[in-house]
Design goal:
The protein is of the alpha/beta class and 268 residues long. It has helices at 8-16, 53-66, 75-81, 99-109, 123-137, 140-161, 185-191, 210-215, 250-253, 258-263, and strands at 3-5, 23-27, 40-45, 71-73, 85-88, 114-117, 168-172, 174-175, 178-180, 195-196, 206-207, 220-223, 243-245. Strand 5 (85-88), helix 4 and strand 6 form a beta-alpha-beta unit.
Length: 268
């Protein structure tokens, strides 16, 4: 089987379940494991490099308003890979190539590859997506074994954190403007021993204000910027005693098997 993965999360999962040798194409953001970097890149960002978090937000908003794509799909590279399976998403047009773009490109090329859409919203759905990929690629036993191990690790985390006081945690997926988390992130905060504020499990992340953050009275602020690192330090009010900057947000924001390990890091 020849697989093109258009999501960093699914690329990670494919390698984790033993399907890495079948992966022939990835995106420019697929950086884990390191071996993924050796595969052909079939998509790139339409965004200029070197933008600040505020400039990135403005670029995204303007592009979405115009109906422009945020990612370029290299149809020539895709055609040359002769894929049997293309893995994509329909969850977030900001996060990766949209499935509609993929469908149009494959139709234009006359490619008959199967298109598998992975759209997890919750931690349970992240685990389900591992099994889905295992079934689609002939690595079901490996996928089920990985999920069983992840569930065991989650049980350990729950036991370790149970009964402890829970600090109020404001997790930010972006800083300028601030974005409250959604999808599986609030679940991860709870598993790690925190009480997530503002964000809702299974819902989309959303734009908020610094007044909203201050009104939530967090004990801990965690910044793990989705995709691009939010380099500029936000204007922390002096009432917030703790600010935690994670050096890499991808393990937390990507719907892959590493979210379980990320959930094991205590925030309080």
């Amino acid at each position: 089987m020849r697989i093109v993965s258009l999501l960093p999360s699914t690329t990670e999962i494919l390698f984790a379940i033993g399907a890495g040798d079948d992966v022939v194409g990835v995106t420019f953001e697929c950086d884990h494991p390191a071996e993924a970097r050796t595969r052909s890149i079939v998509s790139s960002s339409a965004m200029p490099e070197g933008l600040t978090p505020a400039e990135i937000d403005a670029f995204v908003v303007e592009a979405m308003t115009r109906g422009d794509d945020l990612y370029h799909l290299d149809e020539g590279a895709l055609a040359g890979l002769d894929a049997d399976l293309v893995v994509t998403q329909d969850l977030c047009a900001v996060c990766a190539v949209d499935v509609s773009v993929v469908d149009d490109a494959l139709a234009h090329l006359g490619c008959t590859a199967e298109v598998l859409t992975i759209d997890p919203h919750t931690l349970e759905e992240v685990l389900d997506s591992i099994v889905t990929l295992g079934r689609a690629t002939g690595h079901l036993a490996s996928a089920e074994s990985l999920v069983a191990e992840q569930r065991r690790r989650l049980d350990v985390v729950r036991r370790q954190r149970g009964g402890r006081p829970r600090p109020r945690v404001m997790f930010l997926e972006w800083t300028d403007p601030p974005f409250a988390p959604g999808h599986w992130i609030p679940e991860m905060v709870w598993l790690a021993g925190g009480d997530p504020v503002i964000g809702a499990a299974g819902a989309a992340s959303r734009r908020i204000s610094w007044d909203d953050v201050e009104a939530a009275q967090p004990d801990v602020v965690v910044v793990a910027a989705c995709a691009t690192t939010g380099r500029a330090r936000p204007p922390w009010p002096t009432t917030w005693p703790v600010a935690v900057f994670t050096p890499e947000g991808s393990a937390r924001c990507r719907g892959c098997e590493r979210v379980v390990g990320a959930a094991g890091h205590a925030v309080g």
